[in-house]
Design brief:
By secondary structure, the chain is of the alpha/beta class. It has eleven helices and ten strands. It has helices spanning about 10-30, 45-55, 75-85, 100-105, 135-150, 155-165, 170-195, 210-225, 225-230, 240-245, 255-275, and strands at about 30-35, 60-65, 90-95, 95-100, 110-115, 120, 125-130, 130-135, 250, 280. It has a six-stranded mixed beta sheet with strand order 9-5-3-2-1-10, with helices on both faces. The chain has a two-stranded parallel ribbon with strand order 4-6. A two-stranded antiparallel sheet has the order 7-8. It is globular, with a radius of gyration of 21 Å. The chain starts with 9 loop residues before the first helix and ends in a 5-residue tail after the last strand.
Length: about 290
């Protein structure tokens, strides 16, 4: 008696289509591919580890198609540890957005690819508090504002009650998360993004490690300036990022690559929507 072959299902067809399109992008980039469409939440780093370690052979470089609303910077740190363990070079492709902690993740790459529609976000870390994500900088800035008004004797009775209700332990957590985000962004920019920055734009002055660290600090300070960006969800586009002296590769300069990335990305988003998925990691051996 022979085993019957099960007919192909929607999941099989989606996997085959996605794998074929990701393989096409791998050929264009001459790098292994990984897709992360997910909040930066506990557990996604494990899927990424499995997806990368499952490859039988690896190129020297990896590109990551990234789409995220942000999340925990501690998760981002673990993700970067996995990526850098297995690859010499890491490039991030942002078709849509990489916000908050996702911006910190993108800054760990050697290259960042975007188009006119793509955006990063202010580095406002989020903490999971009482069932929802809380933007740390908003709480810290309100606390600092109330303290300043208190020192000037200008607190209203309502503000005084609000100040008394603030959880000092939670505020300390927010402060630590903010400091960690800035620290990681500074370190990764200087180590990875700026590693090939050897001379100044005029081509006459050698770039020192101290210059790289100073530039990284300036960018980290700008991206964490909540008063500049106004809202946690503010999108920062390619032109503004370049004004901050960040080199961004433009997908619009390579129409074939851009089309391949967008066709693949929108298919993956549609597949996630149809399956009710909020977190998805994909490589050629992991779907």
């Amino acid at each position: 008696m022979t085993d019957s072959l099960a007919p192909p299902n929607v999941g099989d067809s989606a996997r085959e289509w996605a794998n074929a399109r990701l393989a096409d992008i791998e050929a264009m980039m001459d790098a292994d591919g990984l897709t992360i469409i997910s909040p930066m939440q506990d557990g996604v780093e494990h899927s990424i580890k499995i997806a990368i370690e499952g490859r039988e052979s690896r190129r020297a470089n990896l590109f990551v198609v990234l789409d995220t609303t942000g999340g925990a910077v501690e998760v981002v740190e673990r993700i970067v540890r996995v990526l850098r363990k297995h690859y010499e070079g890491v490039k991030f492709i942002i078709p849509n957005r990489a916000m908050s902690a996702g911006t910190v993740l993108a800054m760990s790459g050697d290259e960042i690819w975007m188009d006119y529609h793509s955006c990063l976000g202010p580095i406002d870390p989020q903490l999971f508090v009482e069932g929802h994500w809380v933007p740390a900088l908003s709480y810290l800035e309100q606390y600092e504002r109330l303290i300043e008004k208190s020192q000037q004797g200008g607190l209203s009775s309502a503000e005084l009650v609000l100040l008394g209700k603030l959880d000092l332990a939670a505020l300390h957590r927010y402060e630590l998360a903010r400091n960690l985000s800035v620290e990681l962004l500074q370190r990764w920019l200087a180590t990875h993004k700026f590693k090939d920055w050897t001379v100044t734009e005029g081509g006459s002055t050698p770039v020192t490690q101290a210059m790289k660290e100073d530039r990284a600090s300036e960018i980290a300070s700008a991206l964490s300036d909540h008063t500049r960006w106004r809202t946690h969800a503010r999108g920062i586009d390619i032109e503004v990022l370049r004004e901050l002296k960040l080199r961004i590769e433009d997908l619009d300069d390579d129409p074939n690559l851009k089309k391949a990335v967008w066709d693949y990305f929108w298919f993956m988003c549609s597949y996630m929507t149809s399956n009710g998925s909020h977190s998805f990691v994909h490589s050629l051996n992991f779907f």
